[in-house]
Amino acid sequence: MLDTPKTKRSTAVNSGIQVFERADQLLGLLASQASPVGLKSLASESKLNISTAHRILGALSAIGLVEHQAGGFYRLGLRWMEYGNLVRERLQIRDVARPFIEQLHEQIGEPVNLAIRDGDEIIYLDRAAANAARVRVFYRVGSRAPLHLTSLGKLFLAEETAEQIAGYAKRTGLPGNTEHSLTRLSSLNQALKSVHENGVAFDNEEAELGLRCVAAPVRDDQGNLVAAISVSSPTDRFSEHEAVWVPALKACADDVSRALGARL
């Protein structure tokens, strides 16, 4: 039977999955030991031949996930500490912010979102809302959105230099979701100028028609922007209550910042 392109793709995918499974197995063995482990022991415990184990460990060493020591011994690399610190920081921000965003939600009766930046996107870390089952998919916890399409993301872009903002625009192409989306660099720069002037960022139906948002920054003890909190609402209600919601949101974000050690 001849291999078709589809068969070859399926074989390649299965082979890739098998490599990840074997790498995970070796990492698990290293994680279970307090001291470095020899190649022969790792191959024996994982039931892999020595050459396969050596090849996988070499690839993991090249990206810092495994440290190769003299004599053919291996242990987990320091890259895991970097990843662990990032995860811990994100969990800390969510835990600290949770009571404050719940309080703001109870105060204004609208959904309140907490997000962080991850590359050219934001990730929604948490959300306080009365009916989570009716939350739009776009705003579910764990979902992502481009920086320029959200009030949350604009806060992070406003921290960058003109060159960095232009680089973001070039990398992403500034895709739009609605007729109001900022798909030109000049429009984005104008919006970011407003962020600098007002200390908050707006999404005026740029991510979704009929929905407006406003976001305020959360800073750590070094003054770094580490997260953002937003209020989202249908356009008609937002316009009616904006004058009250914006100060309440800024106060909430400031409270979270102080809880993280910021001096405001």
Can you characterise this structure?
This protein has 264 residues and is an alpha+beta fold. The protein folds into 2 domains: 5-77, Arc Repressor Mutant, subunit A; 82-259, 2-Layer Sandwich (Beta-Lactamase). The protein is 51% helix and 19% strand. The chain contains 8 helices and 9 strands. It has helices at residues 5-31, 39-46, 50-62, 79-108, 151-157, 162-172, 185-198, 235-259; strands at 37-38, 66-69, 73-76, 112-118, 121-128, 144-146, 201-204, 211-219, 225-234. A 6-stranded antiparallel sheet has the order 6-5-4-9-8-7, sandwiched between helices. It has a 3-stranded antiparallel sheet with strand order 1-3-2. A hairpin with a 3-residue loop joins strand 2 and strand 3 (73-76). Helix 4 crosses helix 8. The chain is elongated and about 70 Å long. The termini are far apart. The model is unreliable at 4-13 and 132-137 (pLDDT under 50). One of its GO terms (molecular function) is DNA binding. InterPro entries: GAF-like_dom_sf, HTH_MetabolicPath_Reg, Tscrpt_reg_IclR_C, Tscrpt_reg_IclR_N, WH-like_DNA-bd_sf, WH_DNA-bd_sf.
Oligomeric category? single chain
Span from first to last CA? 71 Å
**Strand segment count:** 9
CATH homology group of the largest domain: GAF domain
> How many separate domains make up the residues?
2
Largest sheet: 6 strands, antiparallel
Envelope shape: elongated
Low-confidence stretches: 4-13, 132-137
Q: Tally the helices: what do you get? A: 8
Strand order of the largest sheet: 6-5-4-9-8-7
| CATH-level-2 architecture of the largest domain | 2-Layer Sandwich
Considering DSSP H and I runs of 4 or more, what fraction of the residues is helical? 40-55%
